Amino acid sequence: MRPTRQLLSLLFLLQCIFLLPIQTSAVDKLEKGQNLTDGETLVSAGGTFTLGFFSPGVSTKKYLGIWFSESNDTVYWVANRDDPLGDGSGMLVFNNEGSLVLLGASGRSVWSSDFVGSATAPVAQLVESGNLVVRNGTSDASLWQSFDHPCDTLLPGMKLGKNFWSGDKWVLTSWRSADDPTSGDYIRTLEATRSSGLPELVLWHNGVKTFRTGPWNGRWFNGAPEASTFSDKYQLHVDTSATETTYGYTASPDAPLTRVVVNHTGVAQRLVWDASSRAWISFFKGPKGDCDAYAHCGAFGLCNGTAVSVCGCVPGFVPATSSAWQLKQYAGGCRRNEVLDCRGGTSTDRFKLVPGVKLPDTHNASVDTGITLEECKARCYANCSCLAYAAAYTQESGDGTGCIIWADTIVDIRLLDRGQNLYLRLSKSEFDDPIDGKRFPILLVVAPIASLASALTVLLVIFLIRWRMRRRIIGAISQNPSMAVLSVNLATIKHVTKSFSEDNRIGEGRFANVYQAQLAEGRTIAVKRLKQSALTRKGNRYFAREVEARAGLRHESLVRLLAYCNQGKERILVYEYMEHNSLDVYIFGSGESVIHGDLKPGNILLDNEWIPKIANFGTAKLLAVDQMGHGQTILVSTGYASPEYEQAGDMTLKCDIYSFGIIILETLCGRRNNEIKSLLEHVSKPWQRNNVMELFNEMGLPLPESDSEVLFKLERCIETALRCIRDSPDNRPPMSDIVYMLTNIPSYVNLTRHQTGDSMFTSKSRESGEAGPSSSDVNCLRPSINQADVD
Fold first, then answer.
1. Class of domain 26-149
2. 517: nearest Cα among 552, 488, 553
3. Strand order in the sheet with 71-78
4. 598: annotated active-site residue
């Protein structure tokens, strides 16, 4: 009886053991002779990637692929994309030779790795990078890897490019549709030849170029400067050697998952995984507008995505067919105004700067990275076939190094924030310089008898021109807004301002009075008359320099200089009229009437639609006389001047960035920054306590605590301002980054941090519990923002 009872107890114990859940770890590799069937998977050691069989979307066809474990419908590699399995009976076999073979139901080989050879102890492993690798035993060298055979996606560690010796290419090919991984019509390649040496990414549709990123400039692709905004998370790199040229990127350890994909609609995107919303966030896509379409404006066309009519011509060119351009048909491009003068290496041609552009297509360009830009200019000038040149590599400051020379039609140029300089060869007649002094004596020798008659003729012509200009100048200002800045005579200015009537004066500063005037056709203008006390010899030189600089500036956010007067002792500037005065009136009230020459709310004017524009481009501040009477100095407004200028007189490209940060803080806080520490302390103390509500409650703004999205946007504004006012100019962001930070607020951010007390922003001073920062320790602030954009 007892043995039977003991036997039953043993059976019951065994049954309990068998019913316990079996804990097994995920398998990430196959060894020689092992197989993988439908329903089985390999999972990378960290769990990030999964390999197995799948059917995309509503399709019933079967494929072997690799996908993101967090997003199992995001497949980035497909083995048999062009030969699907018709049923679920496929099998991945790892044979004794070390090859992976995908078999269908009938035993037919549908796909296999291209490894040819033998391995004593082959292992196929899905590693944490997402790469399926075949190795021999524990060797680090791969016999075959999936990264060498990309589909539509580029992951960190993969590459695009070409091996010049073997002819191997690494390209991205889109899916046929969202549910069909068959090779589609769009291909993304890295285009580079041994002769050009500067690769660029190109998107093709059935063999036709549709979009290019511009050439690699040593830091990013010239047409995609947004890459600088995420360089701390994803680092781009281009490697060029005698054997191959490749492009890829790496990810920092703390960076979110990312992928670059060419989708079936012909768009290249960088996507980043947001764990909180469990969704892919699009940080960049291209093409994204008319100016991204390849050669949209034709030969020698210049595309401007912010203009009403996006296509124009580069300097010295006009539309080849005006009637076609009126119908927005730009394919015919532009033609040259004047023929070039270059024969046998002797030329009178000159080079015109076309600033801030995506450089033209380099497929027909020659490149020399070992010379300076000055040497590049000399080489281009001596070669009559050279139509334009540019630097090959850019730098943080200066114009760059190396040399790109275009000797054929240039296409696909667009205006671009943080673009590069292009130097265009034009006829000398396209420049406004006076006649070459060497030619005038020749005329005197050839025609001495006619000299008196010629002089009389010239005097008569000058008289007629001045008489006609006096009658037509007012209409010219209003009727031709695209022309260069005009020189207006004093009589005209006096007429429209009623001899500078006090009734017409709308503003007065230390160095100038401003008058409102109305033209005959009804347009209102602003006339700025510099005071006589400001007109020193150096002041006159600065006046001329400002007119010259402003003549070439056209931007929707700049107050436009329409004309100037430089006659006798008068120095006058004519601007477009801004109906709603300056920004400082609406921040601080109407107590301030002096317009200073530096960036501050008083120099931000508001038009009739409340659109802000920047005015007063340095004329007044350059004409200020210092209080010590030692000559000319630049006016420094307390609280707006950057530390490097206020302390050492160094004017850098980041001075205006500093002033802009102060303006943001003044706008948010509604108080002046008369002394730099007062405003910083007002902002930094609530900031350090992670209590932005305290700051805005002091201002009396109706901001409910429940409105987390509004509070987040306000935090972003403060954080941006604090970045701008860092002491070192090198630590301040460029304006393109600032625009991106203020206009691209990620919707995926977890906005509940205000309820939990957590902040997405961190700084050394917060971590250490120090008091709010002064102007010397703003550099401690290091907000942790995930910014990613383009590949």
1. mainly beta
2. 488
3. 42-43, 49-54, 63-68, 71-78
4. yes
Q: Which CATH architecture group holds 475-635? A: 2-Layer Sandwich (3.30)
Strand segments, DSSP code E, in 400-537 are 403-406, 413-415, 420-426, 486-487, 505-508, 512-518, 524-530
> What gap in Å lies between CA 405 and CA 422, rounded to an integer?
10
Q: Are 626 and 633 in contact (CB under 8 A)?
A: yes
CA distances 484 to 480, 556, 695, Å, are 9, 16, 47
Structure tokens at 156: 């960190």
Among 67-71, 165-169, 485-489, the range of highest mean pLDDT: 67-71
Helices and strands, number each (H, E), in the chain: 17, 44
Out of 1.10.510, 3.30.1740, 1.20.140, 1.20.58, the CATH code matching 640-791 is: 1.10.510
What confidence tier does 557 reach under pLDDT thresholds 50, 70, 90? confident
Amino acid at 150: P
Among all chains, which residue has been given the structure tokens 């796909």?
Answer: 111
For 470-499, b where at least 16 C-beta lie within 10 A, e where not — what string? eeebbeebeeeeeeebbebbeebbbebbee
At residue 113's C-alpha, the angle toward residues 109 and 114, to 5°, is 110
SS3 453: helix
- Identify the H or E element spanning 259: strand 258-262
Q: In sequence order, what are the beta bridge partners of 505? A: 515
CA 102 to mean position of chain CA atoms: 44
- Please state whether the predicted TM-score (pTM) of the whole model is above 0.70: no
SS (HEC) of 220-254: CECCCHHHHHHCCCEEEEEEECCCEEEEEEEECCC
HEC secondary structure over 483-504: CCCEECCHHHHHHHCCCCCHHH
Among residues 349, 361, 598, 737, the one annotated as catalytic is 598
pLDDT tens profile 686-725? 777 776 677 666 655 555 555 667 777 777 888 888 888 8
**Which stretches of 567-691 are DSSP H helices?**
583-588, 619-622, 643-648, 655-669, 676-688
Token pair for residue 433? 């310089």
Distance between CA atoms of residues 743 and 455, nearest Å: 61
d(CA 190, CA 122): 33
- The C-alpha atoms of residue 481 and residue 613 are separated, in whole angstroms, by 17
The neighbour count for residue 450, using CB atoms within 10 Å, is 12
